[in-house]
Structures are given as structure tokens and as C-alpha cells.
Amino acid sequence: MSMFSRAQQPVPQQTRSRLQLILDDLDVAYKRLDHAVSLFNSLILDTDKAMKFIDQFRIDLAQAIEEGGGTVKATDPGNIEAQIKEIFAGRTDAR
């Protein structure tokens, strides 16, 4: 009749060791870092998509200009600042 014997007493919860607390904190830190990495990966993919979109837009714009009879010439990156100053030289509302 062991079935009707005394009910088992619940085991008192033991205090957690410092190492277990450190492991718990490391688990939380790992999960947060994993989430941050996934966000960065998403951001990188979005930036890559934006770069491809801008590149395709530039190609399509150059084709449209050429089909309309215009010419498209390469721009010297070092000369862009001078071109901007030249365009806005006569304007008084430029900041």
C-alpha cells in the first residue's frame, strides 16, 4: 500500500550558483547579439537592393537620354564640386 503512503514533499528550490547566473546572463547576451546580427544582415541586404536599384535607374536614364538624341558622358568625380559651384554661381537664394 505504498500508494497511500505519505505524499512526497516538494523539493525546496536550491539557490542558484554564481556560475549558473553567469551562464544565464551569457545566454541572454548571446540571444541579443544574435538578434542584432540578424538586424545588421537585413540592413546590409536592404542597402544592397538600394544600390542595385540606383545602378539600374542610372543605366535606364542613360539609355533614355541616348534614345532621345542626347549624349551621356562620364563625370569626373573630382570635378563635381566645381560643376556645382558653377551652376549655383549666379543664384542669390543659394545658401
Descriptive account of the structure:
The chain is mostly helical and 95 residues long. The protein has two helices and no strands. The protein starts with 17 loop residues before the first helix and ends in a 7-residue tail after the last helix.
Task: Offer a few descriptive terms.
62% helix, 2 helices, single chain, elongated, 95 residues, mainly alpha
Topology summary:
Layout: H1 18-67, H2 80-88
Overview in brief:
The chain is mainly α and 95 residues long. The chain is 62% helix and 0% strand. The protein starts with 17 loop residues before the first helix and ends in a 7-residue tail after the last helix.
SSE succession: HH
Distance between the termini: 96 Å
How confident overall, as mean pLDDT? 81
Strand content: under 5%
Main beta sheet strand tally, sense and closure = none
Count of helical stretches: 2
Radius of gyration: 33 Å
Structural category: mainly alpha
Number of strands: 0
- Overall body shape: elongated
Helical fraction:
55-70%
Q: Oligomeric form of this entry?
A: single chain
Unreliable spans: none
